[in-house]
């Protein structure tokens, strides 16, 4: 599997704060939120790279069994 690229991003502190709140609202990391915004922008602009891989699905991996907590709650 190819490693993900690391980039240095310099943005206005107010933009960073807004991005942080947006990411928290959608239960994502800041990096994940930036990637989602970029992917949406690619789609809107009609410039989706042909080699782009889909994002992994959120949540539990398929087939993973949840532990029965019984009366713990």
TrEMBL record:
Domain of life: Bacteria
SUPFAM superfamilies hit by this protein: Ribbon-helix-helix
Residue stretches spanning the membrane: none
Region (Disordered): 51-73
Biased composition (Polar residues): 64-73
GO term, biological process aspect, one: regulation of DNA-templated transcription
Name of the protein this chain belongs to: Toxin-antitoxin system HicB family antitoxin
UniProt source species: Acidithrix ferrooxidans
């Amino acid at each position: 599997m190819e490693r993900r690229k690391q980039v240095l991003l310099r943005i206005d502190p107010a933009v960073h704060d807004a991005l942080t709140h947006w990411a928290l609202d959608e239960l994502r990391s800041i990096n994940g939120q930036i990637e989602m915004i970029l992917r949406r922008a690619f789609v809107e602009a009609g410039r989706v790279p042909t080699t782009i891989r889909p994002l992994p699905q959120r949540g539990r991996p398929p087939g993973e069994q949840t532990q029965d907590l019984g009366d713990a709650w």
